[in-house]
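Residues and backbone
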Amino acid sequence: MSGKVKVMIVDDHDMVRMGLKTYLMLEPTFHVIGEAGNGEAALHHLRKLDESEMPDLILMDLMMPVMNGAEATQAIMSEFPAMKIVMLTSFLEDDLVVQAIESGAVSYVLKTVSAEELIYALQGAYRGMPVMTGDVSQALTRGIRQRTARESESGLTEREKEVLLLIAEGKTNKDIGEELHISIKTVKTHVSNLLMKCEMDDRTQLAIYAHRQGWVKTKD
């Protein structure tokens, strides 16, 4: 690996960013050139950079306010397709792993990995080689199988069903976005897809549909 690999760190916790930055600065092959507290801020920062100033890698947290890691990865990859992104997170839920990889992340790494494993993942991502531990690979496989089974049953994705259930609870787009950690724009897209797939005209009809399907749990 010739020259230093330029890294941008995106995490909503100041202490996490500081710790990662401090560690990577001790590694001779890496140079931290930027950081951001959420996905939207990261995207805005990248748009201001010249080509020579762009990072080679982004170390991205998954669960963040305003714009989460999966949304940010998708948005960044659409504008900067050559970017390499490594998702660093505390979560190993099957659906989250699938969401992160589908959004364009090269690798999905848990925050519990050793320093050596993190460096190995970053070096692999720089070369375009996906790096995942056995646990992550198994979660990805399970997540894909579960999603396929769920979609075949209702025709809706798991995220669309989550949005539908929240609509049935009377939640606004803002409420739904905050609860699912997604942007309002993404919520509106899911609502539009739900209206089309369920052949409904408005949110009220969607709510009634969810109740009729027996998906809404009644409170005692």
In short: The CA atoms of residues 15 and 21 lie 10 Å apart. The chain has a mean pLDDT of 85. The first strand starts at residue 5 and ends at 10. The beta strands are 5-10, 30-36, 57-61, 84-89, 107-110.
